[in-house]
Structure formats: C-alpha cells, structure tokens
C-alpha cells in the first residue's frame, strides 16, 4: 500500500525509478528487515514496472520468507552487485533516466558505483522528504507496535528502580535492565543504549552509563527503550534515592509540571514550536530556562528519532496520527539532572502516551 504511494510519487515528480538504500526505509515498504553491514541491500522501485529487493545471496531465502512477496535478487560476494542491479533494471524498463535517491542515506561511494552503470542518467532528485512525510502519519497497526514497545519500557523501569542500591554502578543497573528485558520479555535489542545516570552525571543528557556508583540522596535518571516488532520506545524517568533535598524536589516538580502541561496541550492544530513553548515557558518562569538545553521532543516510529521535531522554529501543525516524545529536562552542571519523557500519538482531540510509569516523584529507600 505504501509502495503504491511511492510509485505514484515517482510518476507525479517525473522520476523513472527510486533507489532505496536505507534498511529502515526498505523495511517500512516491504516488511523485510535486515542489517547488511558493508554489503549491498536495496529496494528498487520503478514507476511502471515491478519493484525488487536486491540483497546478498545469503539473505535471499529469508527475504523470500518475509512479508515481502515481490521479486528478490541476490548476489554473491564474488560478483559485482552494481552490474547485476543494472541488468535487472534494464530487463524491466527502458526508462532509466531520472533516479530518485535517499540523499540522507546513500553514500558517495555507492552513488558513484551506481552512476557508473547509468552514466547518462540523472541522480539529482531526493526521495527522502517524501518518505519522511509518509512516515509522519502512523497507522493503527503501527501505533499498536509502539504501544507494545512502550509496555516493555515500563517493565524496564521497574527492573531499574529495584536495582538501585548504594555503590552499584550505573553500568550494572543498565546491564540488569537489558538482561531482564531479554530473558523475561524476549526483547531482541534496545532502541538505543540504556542510559542510567546518578547524581551530577545526569546533568549531561546523553552520558554513559559509566562506572560511576550510586550514592545516597542522589537523583537517578533513566532513559531507555526497546525495539518491538520493528518499532521503538523511548522514555525517561528520574527517581530519588533516599529523601530528596528541597532543591532536588523543586527541579523535579518544575520539570514534571512542564511535561504534564505539554501532554495536555498536545492535540491537532497546535504547532510543534508552540508545544515546545508550553513546556519551556514553565521552566523559564521557574528560573531554570538556561538549563533546558534541548528541544521538547522528536518523532518516533521505526527510528527512535524521526520526524516531527518538536522544536522552536518548526511551524508544522500537529495532526492526528503523528507520534513523538515530550521530554523536558533540567540539567544543572555539577548538581543533578531531571528528565521526564513519554512518547505518544496525537489523537482526534488529545495525546495518548505509550508509557505509563507513574510520575509522582518516586523515593527509593536506601539499600546496601
Ligand atoms: Mn527521547
């Protein structure tokens, strides 16, 4: 169905064919998902002939057994893949002049080799913006997978909160989360490396996990997610290890209020930058604006970061079916960091989150 839309786009935009090279995009269009490493993996879509998957010979059988029911053409490591692609394209069509490529993915080296087979063709058109727009609106089926990924993130928080004790390393807690996800939930892999940060480490939003150990009366920040049926989760929670100080509680409550206000404001009709402002204004008024050092959120789907970007300067009007994170943070260097994050989907009249772990400040009692 999505492939029909791509073929229609080829016709409307006066392109003869598209060379799709990003494995995530290929999976989006075909249901076949694979990591080719340095080998060649492509989906070739022609405006008026049958598309085909091109992949290493060692993947041909799994591609044929996947949801994809079109042609699969393989190549051996000893063969020239570009030559085989060219032969199979020319078998299908004589119109090979205007190629659309994914400019945000195709490497210069591969582009030059492909071009070598079609020296008179034009490769100036970019199909990436069309694909981004297509992927912006999630179907009910995709939303179900995002909810499934969210449930796994909620499970991961439980494991993480239980693993906190004095002297445990951030890396150990992250390892326990990943291990339990694998053995209890069958999670194949996380959507990014599980982040656990204690104390002042949490002031660096993407640091770690390190060999830093948890100490009493620190805030501990978790940012984690899984891949579920090809779709990502991404969620953050911050908890207190022992009774928090007044200042720790203050930054937590300000961040929580900002996140809650943004969740309540998210609905069709508001723009991405307006939504960012809802949270940012609350944090700024409380005196912490300079410590909120990133955008409010990012889109989520097959990629843990995709469109739309919830950021100042983006006047995109949010619509039903768009999925993204709402994740204000306050990071005070040398002191602590707080981030509370849920991803969700814009509904007819609001925003429904994929994660549901409680957001009252959780106080984990001291443990040795
Ligand atoms: Mn995120």
- Arrangement of strands in the largest sheet: 4-3-2-1-5-6
Biggest pleated sheet: 6 strands, mixed
- What percentage of amino acids are in beta strands? 15-25%
User: What general outline do the C-alpha atoms trace?
Assistant: elongated
Low-confidence stretches: none
Radius of gyration: 23 Å
Order of helices and strands: HEHEEHEHEHEHHHEEEEEHHEEEEEEEE
The count of DSSP E runs of length 2 or more, i.e. the number of strands, is 19
Number of helices: 10
Query: What share of the residues lie within helices?
Result: 25-40%
Structural class, from secondary structure content? alpha+beta
Q: Could you tell me the mean pLDDT? A: 97
Distance between the termini: 56 Å
Bound molecules: manganese (II) ion
């Amino acid at each position: 169905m999505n492939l029909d839309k791509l073929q229609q786009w080829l016709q409307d935009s006066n392109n003869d064919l598209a060379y799709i090279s990003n494995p995530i995009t290929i999976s989006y269009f075909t249901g076949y998902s694979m990591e080719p490493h340095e080998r060649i993996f492509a989906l070739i879509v022609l405006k008026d002939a049958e598309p085909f998957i091109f992949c290493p010979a060692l993947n041909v059988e799994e591609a044929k057994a996947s949801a994809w029911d079109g042609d699969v053409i393989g190549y051996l490591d000893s063969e020239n893949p570009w030559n085989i692609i060219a032969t199979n394209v020319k078998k299908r069509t004589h119109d090979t002049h205007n190629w659309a490529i994914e400019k945000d993915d195709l490497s210069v080296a591969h582009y030059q080799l492909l071009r070598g087979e079609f020296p008179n063709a034009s490769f100036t058109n970019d199909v990436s913006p069309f694909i981004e727009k297509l992927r912006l609106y999630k179907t009910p089926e995709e939303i179900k997978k995002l909810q499934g990924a969210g449930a796994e993130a909620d499970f991961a928080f439980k494991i993480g909160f239980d693993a906190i004790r004095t002297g445990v390393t951030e890396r150990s807690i992250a390892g326990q989360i990943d291990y339990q996800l694998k053995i209890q939930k069958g999670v194949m892999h996380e959507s990014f490396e599980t982040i656990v940060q204690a104390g002042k480490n949490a002031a660096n939003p993407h640091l770690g996990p390190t060999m830093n150990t948890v100490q009493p009366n620190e805030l501990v920040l978790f940012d984690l997610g899984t891949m579920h049926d090809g779709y990502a989760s991404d969620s953050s929670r911050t908890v207190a290890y022992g009774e928090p100080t007044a200042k720790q509680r203050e930054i937590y409550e300000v961040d929580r209020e900002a996140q809650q206000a943004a969740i309540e404001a998210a609905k069709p009709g508001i723009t991405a930058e307006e939504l960012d402002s809802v949270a940012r204004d609350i944090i700024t008024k409380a005196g912490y604006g300079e410590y909120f050092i990133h955008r409010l959120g990012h889109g989520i789907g097959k990629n843990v970061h995709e469109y739309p970007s919830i950021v100042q300067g983006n006047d995109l009007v949010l619509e039903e079916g768009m999925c993204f994170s709402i994740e204000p943070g306050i990071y005070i260097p040398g002191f602590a960091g707080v981030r509370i994050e849920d991803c969700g989907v814009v509904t007819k009249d609001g925003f429904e989150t994929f994660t549901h772990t409680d957001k009252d400040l959780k106080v984990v009692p001291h443990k040795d």
